[in-house]
Amino acid sequence: MQKIYADHAATTPIHPEVRDTMIDVLTNNFGNPSSIHHFGRQARKQLDESRAQLASTIGASPDELILTSGGTEADNLAIIGFAKAYRDTGTHIITSAVEHHAVLHTCERLEKEGFQVTYLPVDEKGMVSASDLESAITEDTILVSIMHGNNETGTVQPVEELARIANENHVAFHTDAVQTYGHIPIDVTEIGITLLSVSSHKINGPNGAGFLYVKKGTRLTPSFTGGEQERKRRAGTENLAAIAGFAKAAEITHRHFTERAEASQQLTNYFLERLRAEEVEYEINGTEERRLPHIVNVYLPGIQVESFLVQLDFKGIAASSGSACTAGSVEPSHVLEAMFKDRDRALSSVRFSFGTNNTLEEMEYIAREIKNIIQR
């Protein structure tokens, strides 16, 4: 039986060159980057080179990056760290109803601490309205946090316009770019971003590594107390092997940026073409015009998503109903519930996400098995 991994939005297999880089660091570069002896200096050199490589991929300076354990920590540090640092200027935060839980739950935590949070609605394409954002900003607003691309539907938000509105109103703009980094171009200066979160394991890098971009001059209250690593913004000895692996994954991804995007789009287009050829009834959740090339979320009327995913798994196909961070939850996707009034739609939708190891033949197999499962 074939084994097909179509859940790259959850995590990606590590690239062989990334693995080799990490093994080399673990074997030959074990020093603490904060130590002043030869082993420490060698580790510091590796750390600096990795940071510079990562910064170059988003048009940032190396000293604007805080290396983290992943996207969740980066989101928490961005939102809580900024909110606490600027509490004396305002306590109002704006986000959207379709954010990752790393943002939503963080905002809910701040509400319990006296902050006010506005959750902007989205339309049936999953898009945030620029006019809604403009109307929501008050004199007390200090931060807007709108994700760049949605991890469940692949919808890409108009962050350029949203950031412009925030900047014109002297409000900081944070975006969770975990799902878009490595798939569409990002230039923090051109977009006008204050804070940006990224994770390694979405681009064939290791788990447990990420970064937060912080525009120069922006204050943050650290989440951790301890040493003076990361310019006193994130205490703790850096995970050098994971960071080096992350930098290697970023270098590979951006070296083959165009080819990767085109290959992902080809897989997605062919998958939908094969569904039509198999006469499978489906609708796309989200928008076809502004969607990440590697993610497609399809509504399959009449299915029950949990049993459907189990049957796909029996056929060797790995897919999901949404964010891997909500696996095991009996609640339907909060993203789809925000997009559609029909609650049942969220219970009959499946996310497929493709990557470098997938083939057109696999798309044929997946579409054929979807038809067989529905017929049964």
UniProtKB/TrEMBL annotation:
Domain Aminotransferase class V: 4-365
Cofactor(s), by name: pyridoxal 5'-phosphate
One Gene Ontology term of the molecular function aspect: iron-sulfur cluster binding
Gene3D superfamilies hit by this protein: 1.10.260.50, Aspartate Aminotransferase, domain 1, Type I PLP-dependent aspartate aminotransferase-like (Major domain)
Organism: Alteribacillus iranensis
Any coiled-coil regions, as ranges: none
Catalysed reactions, as listed in the record: (sulfur carrier)-H + L-cysteine = (sulfur carrier)-SH + L-alanine
Family (UniProt): Belongs to the class-V pyridoxal-phosphate-dependent aminotransferase family. NifS/IscS subfamily.
InterPro entries linked: Aminotrans_V_dom (IPR000192), Cysteine_dSase (IPR016454), PyrdxlP-dep_Trfase (IPR015424), PyrdxlP-dep_Trfase_major (IPR015421), PyrdxlP-dep_Trfase_small (IPR015422)
Keywords recorded for this protein, A-Z: Iron, Iron-sulfur, Metal-binding, Pyridoxal phosphate, Transferase
Name of the protein: Cysteine desulfurase
Alphabetized Pfam families for the sequence: Aminotran_5
